[in-house]
């Protein structure tokens, strides 16, 4: 498990800064910094940097092998993120579903699509030991 004095960092492409800021703020992320070529967010306690690179946007994204997101340890937080996505009319790539039903690794999940076609997964495991 990660120590609390560390922050995970992820850099991803974006095609336009204003729409990127709008999407991530609607998701509840805080804009930390903005420059002419990138924006940095507090993404649920970690750092996501969206670099302006419209020529590197995946026009046909697939869930596997590339996506990122949050595994919530509290169901209430998962539910809150889902309700926020619905309320803000954020684009779903995959609607909420249950994966691995009836197995120890059963979890709730949904995927969102950001303006640059980056896929974000949000999930909650009923058995917290399966989070890693």
From TrEMBL:
<dbReference type="InterPro" id="IPR004360">
    <property type="entry name" value="Glyas_Fos-R_dOase_dom"/>
</dbReference>
<dbReference type="Pfam" id="PF00903">
    <property type="entry name" value="Glyoxalase"/>
</dbReference>
<dbReference type="InterPro" id="IPR029068">
    <property type="entry name" value="Glyas_Bleomycin-R_OHBP_Dase"/>
</dbReference>
<feature type="domain" description="VOC">
    <location>
        <begin position="6"/>
        <end position="125"/>
    </location>
</feature>
<dbReference type="InterPro" id="IPR037523">
    <property type="entry name" value="VOC_core"/>
</dbReference>
<protein>
    <submittedName>
        <fullName>Glyoxalase</fullName>
    </submittedName>
</protein>
């Amino acid at each position: 498990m990660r120590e609390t004095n560390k922050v995970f960092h992820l850099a991803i492409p974006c095609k336009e800064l204003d729409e990127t800021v709008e999407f991530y703020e609607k998701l509840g992320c805080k804009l930390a910094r903005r420059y002419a070529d990138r924006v940095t967010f507090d993404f649920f306690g970690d750092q996501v940097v969206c670099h302006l690179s419209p020529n590197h946007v995946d026009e046909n994204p697939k869930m596997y092998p590339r996506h990122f997101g949050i595994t919530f340890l509290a169901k209430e937080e998962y539910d809150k993120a889902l309700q926020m996505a619905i309320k803000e009319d954020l684009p779903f790539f995959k609607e909420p579903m249950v994966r691995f039903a009836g197995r120890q690794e059963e979890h709730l999940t949904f995927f969102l699509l950001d303006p640059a076609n980056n896929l974000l997964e949000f999930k909650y495991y009923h058995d917290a030991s399966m989070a890693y």
